[in-house]
Amino acid sequence: MDYVLTEHARDALARRNIPLIWVERALHTPEMTEADSVDADLEHHLVRIPEFGNRVLRVIVNVKKVPPHVVTAFIDRRRSSRET
Fold it and tell me: Does 55 map to a domain?
């Protein structure tokens, strides 16, 4: 999947120490996807990160843009490592 990182996403990854490879894992092989509750253009890709204690990474993507634009990414503290 080709994609674009928005400036906000680049800043968020750097600030949150999230490696790009984790984002790519969520984009290519998400364990779960969810529609955004507010914006129909956005999709949430969730994946557990084994090398980070199986915590859940949430990557939010604008799927209406070509190529898709990664809007932001963060460790979802509301999800346990057993949920996805």
Answer: yes
| 45 falls within a domain | yes
**DSSP letters spanning 17-76:** T--HHHHHHHHHS-SEEEE-SS-TTEEEEEEEEGGGTTEEEEEEEETTSSS-EEEEEEE-
11 HSE (CA, 13 A, CB side): 4
pLDDT in tens, 37-46: 999 999 999 9
Phi, psi of 42 (to 5 degrees): -100, 145
Cut 0.85: pTM above it: yes
Counting the structural domains of the chain, the total is 1
Domain that holds residue 40: 4-75
Cβ neighbourhood burial of 9 (10 Å; 0-12, 13-18, 19+): buried
